[in-house]
Amino acid sequence: MDHHGTGANWDNLYNPGDEIEQKRAFVTLLIAQKRRTDTLLELSNDVVWETDATGRFTFLNRSAVELFGEPIRHLIGRHFLGFDKREGRIANLRFMATLCAKGEARDFVTSINVGKFRKRLTINARMILDARGLIEKVYGTIRDITRQHDAEQRLHEQARRDALTGLYNRSALIERLESELCARRCGAMIKIDIDHFDRVNETLGPREGDAVIRAVGSLLCAELGSSERSTLYHLGGDAFAVICSPTSRKAVAGLGERLRLAVGRHSQRQGAAADLHHPREATAPANHTASAGVVLFPRDGNTPVELLRNARVAITRAKQAGRNRLMFFRAPGQSRPRHSQEAGLAGAASPDQARDRSPSADRRRDSQ
Question: Most buried among 119, 190, 259, 266, by the most CB within 10 A?
Answer without folding.
Answer: 190
